[in-house]
Amino acid sequence: MATLLPILICLLLPVGFFLRRYFMGLPHANKPHACKQFGSGPQPVYASWPNRVVGNFWESFHAHQGKHTSIAARVNSLYVHPIKSCRAVKVEKAEVMSTGLKYDRQFTFAELQNPEGKPNSASSGSTGWQFVTQRKYGRLANIHLEIWVPNPESPDYSPDQPNVLSDGVLRVRYPDPKCDSRKPELKIFDIPYCPTEDQVLTLGFTMEQLTVWKDRPNALLIASTTHTSPPAWIKDIQAYIGCSKPFALFRVAAGHNRQVFRNAPRKQQLGYQSVTGFADSYPLHILGLSSVADLDRKLVSVMPELTESTALRFRANIYFEGLAAFAEDSWKRIRIGQSIYYVACRTTRCELPNTDQRTGKKHLSQPSKLMRSYRDIDSGAGVGKACLGMQVVPAAEWGIIKVGDEIEVLETGAHHYILQ
After folding, report:
1. How far apart are the first and last CA of the chain?
2. Which of 26, 205, 334, 370 has the greatest count of CB atoms below 10 A from its CB?
């Protein structure tokens, strides 16, 4: 066996070199091999977004002076956020997993809180890696994402093709930090969406502990500026967002999802333990467009520079239309299409919606200040904590949701938020 080891190393080194360059090396001008794009493509970083999420909702809203009604509540649009706090990807249809929509918040950037490598006082043995979001680094909003999934009809498709083995590719486009910020050039890199054990080994990914709020799951470290030879893109993104600490990209590791308790239905009721990946609290977030429209109508008077809906600032997965503003506040259980969902609690709002999702620039106070003035409605959330939208747990571990699906309210009732 000892005599075979040098031979195996010689055979594996070229494979590892190929995979590293294939997934994480030079920018890719062409589409990923054996794949087709899932969801919407990238938009120019500073392009003006239309005054809608999708469809003709906003025209209808203005035509009816904010009293939008329709025959039934329906799913207006669906969004996934593959890397936490980066640009959303709009989809027409999605798989619903125990963790939420497939592809949603499976990756996150992180910074090292103790560059000397000393354990966190709060958790013996912690590496000090902590997730980061737009709350601190607003420019994360300018990092564009594309989801590429295996395509059996592609001429270069093969079951053992690297992109097929990894269940697709996440393509990342980010502004070159060396370019004029007014006309940024987008650089590109690809990473395997769900790397196999062999790809983890050959690409040099490692398991590290990561702090996500009060949880400390083990997660897959994809790239870090602390590595001896880090890929250029991790250093570029670190510079672009203005992070001065060691910086990294993590992926949720198989078998290491974070368990969800607090307001979520219990395992005995669901038949499985509710979990999430890198989402803040719960698997899914639903928000009514009438509720956003009500806020926007009030917001114009204190934020005259506002020229587009704030809907995407709230980074929900499911936007619906057809009911009055804040109708979702009392939901307890709903059916969307053929699947049942538990509405666990209200969504408490932090300062993140103050970040313009077109530019990554933060407003000093709005819309957070306005929301606190009339959406401080849940005593469990604490004084002065605004709520908008609802947190949701799937009743089953798998399902399908589509734009246009009808929403049926099965149960309503009171909500009382439970803090972490």
Report:
1. 53
2. 334
E strand or H helix at 241, and its extent? Answer: helix 232-241
pLDDT at 68 over 70: no
Query: Would residue 125 be called left, alpha or beta, if left means φ above 0 and alpha means ψ between -120 and 50 degrees?
Result: left
Cis bond upstream, residue 367 (ω within 30): yes
Give pLDDT, residue 420. 86
Q: Are strands 339-348 and 144-150 parallel, antiparallel or unpaired?
A: unpaired
CA separation for the pair 367, 310 (Å, rounded)? 9
CA dihedral 306, 307, 308, 312 (to 10 degrees): -40
Per-residue pLDDT reduced to its tens digit, 375-420? 999 999 999 999 999 999 999 999 999 999 999 999 999 999 999 8
pLDDT(181) > 80: no
Buried b (16+ CB within 10 A) or exposed e, 370-389: bbbeebeebebbeeebbbbb
- The sign of the CA dihedral 80, 82, 83, 84 is positive
Name which of 405, 389, 285 is nearest 336 in CA terms: 405
Q: pLDDT tier at 8 (50, 70, 90 boundaries)?
A: very low
Strand partners, 286: 318, 390
Q: Report residue 89: phi and psi, to 5°.
A: -115, 125
Find all residues with CB under 8 Å of 115, minimum gap 6, and list them. Answer: 128, 245, 246
* Full 3-state SS string of 213-234: CCECCEEEEEEECCCCCCCHHH
Contact, 222 vs 170, CB < 8 A?
Answer: no
